[in-house]
Amino acid sequence: MYVCLCKAITDRDVRQALDEGCYCMRDLKERLGVCSACCKCAPAAKALLNEYMADPSVAALARRVA
């Protein structure tokens, strides 16, 4: 599914970026361009990020990286 139509970013793209170390919206914006045009993709991207960060092991790793 497309998360961002402006930049043709899919949920797979977002999930891959999350797997590769993007732990916040700023990281996703820098890496993929999410929320850099009309910002209508923000809720979908944030939902994917929240789902990913709900895993305690991922959240712990993100805290160590930050």
From TrEMBL:
The keyword Metal-binding applies. Keywords: 2Fe-2S, Electron transport, Iron, Iron-sulfur, Metal-binding, Transport. It comes from the Bacteria. Belongs to the Bfd family. GO terms for molecular function: 2 iron, 2 sulfur cluster binding; metal ion binding. This is Bacterioferritin-associated ferredoxin. Residues 2-51 form the BFD-like [2Fe-2S]-binding domain. Its cofactor is [2Fe-2S] cluster. Signal peptide: none annotated.
